[in-house]
Amino acid sequence: MMVKSFRLLVVFLLLQSSLIAAEVPKKPLILAVLPCTDILETFKKFHPLVQFLTQETGVNLQLVVPENLTRFEVSIHNGEIDLALQDPHTFLKLENSFDQESLLRALNAEGGTTQTGAVIVRKDSGIKKLSELKGKTVMFGPKISANKWLAARLLFKENGIDIDQDLKTYLNGGCCEDIAFNVYLKAVDAGVVCDHFGNEHGNKQKEMGIEADQLVVIGMTQKVPMKIMGARKGVDKEIIARIKQALLKLDRTTPEHEAILLPTELGGFCQYQDGDFTQVKAMMKGNWAE
């Protein structure tokens, strides 16, 4: 009788522990996106992608937008972020924190693996070339942007402009729309936007009252790699595999996936290869990332 009672007690305890485990929700995986715009807008842009990944993988994903690069770095080191979408120079600073097998390269809207920055001015400014920006005010992209900051600084240097010495002043702005708007309103003399800004944001420019034909490009940066998606070391390998498979499945030529990718300004993902960021590493040695 005692043996039977003991067995019943064991069964009861097992059932109770199962019920408790079922009631406790699994801790979500944290996906961080380093934004070039405000936090609310970034959430709107990437919410469809997070939904897609959750549906495809069954993994509970939560999107976070770090307030700045310092906060992002601290969160990575503390294990508070599991996945991250970031520009290459930011990734390279923290490369040892990421699982190399998890890495994917983002594609641009045309399916390519690179992007450039474009320096724009008002058509009526009288500024025709980069060297004429000496003594002027320039708005670059945020320091987390490879094309609007890292490559742009190098472009100015190649054209004889030390941004710390030769400009009246410079600022680090946010998204392309805001930078173009500041140029259009003559708040700054020039700005650096993504190469795809004119093509992909025509309607947005109209909504903001920007007459696109009043802005002209006077310089283009070198091509730099698109963003990289990766998981920090320690994230479950099986979960990483599922997420990678889902991301690689995205096809910008299908209406369903286009609706997911279009807000993010990405064209999908492809496999990461060693040596992809050799050029960016060379730029960083020149201190253009500071």
Q: Features of this protein?
A:
D-Maltodextrin-Binding Protein, domain 2; 2 domains; 290 residues; 13 strands; disordered N terminus; 6-stranded mixed β-sheet; alpha/beta; 40% helix; 5-stranded mixed β-sheet
Describe the protein.
The protein has 290 residues and is an alpha/beta fold. It has two domains: 144 residues, D-Maltodextrin-Binding Protein, domain 2 (3-Layer(aba) Sandwich); 110 residues, Periplasmic binding protein-like II (D-Maltodextrin-Binding Protein, domain 2), CATH 3.40.190.10. Helix content is 40%, strand content 19%. It has eleven helices and 13 strands. A six-stranded mixed beta sheet has the order 2-1-3-12-4-13. It has a five-stranded mixed beta sheet with strand order 8-7-9-6-10. Strand 7, helix 5 and strand 8 form a beta-alpha-beta unit. Helix 2 packs across helix 9. The longest helix is centred in the first third of the chain and has 22 residues. The N terminus is likely disordered.
